[in-house]
Amino acid sequence: MDVIEMARELGKVIQQDERYIRYMDACTLNDTDTEIQNEIGKFNMKRAELGEEMRKNGNDTEKLKELNAEIQQMYKTIMEMPKMIEFYEAKDELSKLITSVNYIVSQASQGEDPETCPETPPQSCSGSCAGCSGCG
Known about the structure:
This protein is an all-alpha fold.
């Protein structure tokens, strides 16, 4: 079996993993949930309205603030829906799996022993605190 065939086999195994299945189930639930889709549609229309208002010459800053506040509230409402919470949790777990697979393959391609290299990249401080969960 060559490397490409093995990669295809790995793809099949990933698709059988519980994290992948959970993510795909969450996608399907969100895609078929009328309430979520309606809220996303309203959110997108409000964003388009904000975009149009921003393109106007001499736009109304109060109107922009109002639209922005509405958009933020709509986003918060969508993100607090139980199915959306489940979706993002499942997405995060699958992402962690894929990051681990990619890291192991990357390390092996640089000469590390695939049997003993860590599953996740070492965490280090970039110097920027943006998006950081804190120093340990």
